[in-house]
């Protein structure tokens, strides 16, 4: 089921804009905050290492996808497939901790370098360039919306952990809202989301459009 597709140039620009906003946030993290609680059992350093995958994944998967045939059509098709095949939470935690350990002392510098590499890769590629993700090959235009969601959601996590003030680009928030709403509809829980958003009924305890338990 395909519920929505984004205009390619617009979503690429939104990815670039919100990515830079998170770069600015990471650059603002003071040295005394890196060991603070970040998200779940992660500290701020580990959270930032996880966020950086929104850049490194784009660069890596674009390079790996050269010449591949598209398998997943549409951002929601990719996103729901990704979460249906998601590794265990323990595996995600292990990977994030390893990536945090690999960061050097200039975390902000590494973060910005990876952002710049991802933006350069996006600008050099066509909207239909194949991206070879771990769950299947998807076009760049259909892959980037999920990265915008990650940057907005985990950017908010970073704000909560550090107290940094930042208002995310309205277009990025719109992409995240559309992606989450469409994912809820695709998973059969769209009515619950709509009723909560219109003030009719609170969300059930533990409600999560991504399917985490």
Descriptive report:
- The chain has 213 residues and is mainly alpha-helical.
- It has a single domain (8-197), classed as Four Helix Bundle (Hemerythrin (Met), subunit A).
- Helices cover 61% and strands 6% of the residues.
- A two-stranded antiparallel ribbon has the order 1-2. Strands 3-4 form a two-stranded antiparallel sheet.
- The longest helix has 23 residues, at 140-162.
CATH superfamily: dinb family like domain
> What is the CATH topology descriptor?
Four Helix Bundle (Hemerythrin (Met), subunit A)
Largest sheet: 2 strands, antiparallel
Q: Which geometry do the CA atoms define?
A: globular
**Rg, nearest Å:** 17 Å
As for the number of domains, it is 1
Low-confidence stretches: none
Reported CATH architecture: Up-down Bundle
Termini Cα gap? 24 Å
| Number of H- or I-type helical stretches | 9
The largest sheet has its strands arranged as 1-2
Structural class by SSE content: mainly alpha
Residues in β-strands, percent: 5-15%
CATH class: Mainly Alpha
How many strands appear in the DSSP assignment? Answer: 4
What share of the residues lie within helices?
55-70%
Mean pLDDT: 92
How would you spell out the order of helices and strands? HEEHHHHHEEHHH
Topology:
Blueprint: H1 8-27, E1 37-39, E2 42-43, H2 44-51, H3 53-64, H4 75-84, H5 89-101, H6 107-124, E3 130-133, E4 136-139, H7 140-162, H8 170-186, H9 190-197
Antiparallel strand pairs: 1-2, 3-4
Helix pairs in contact: 1-6, 1-7, 2-5, 2-7, 3-6, 3-7, 4-7, 4-8, 7-8, 8-9
Structure at a glance:
The protein is built from 9 helices and 4 strands. The protein is mainly α. The protein has a single domain, classed as dinb family like domain (Four Helix Bundle (Hemerythrin (Met), subunit A), Up-down Bundle), CATH 1.20.120.450.
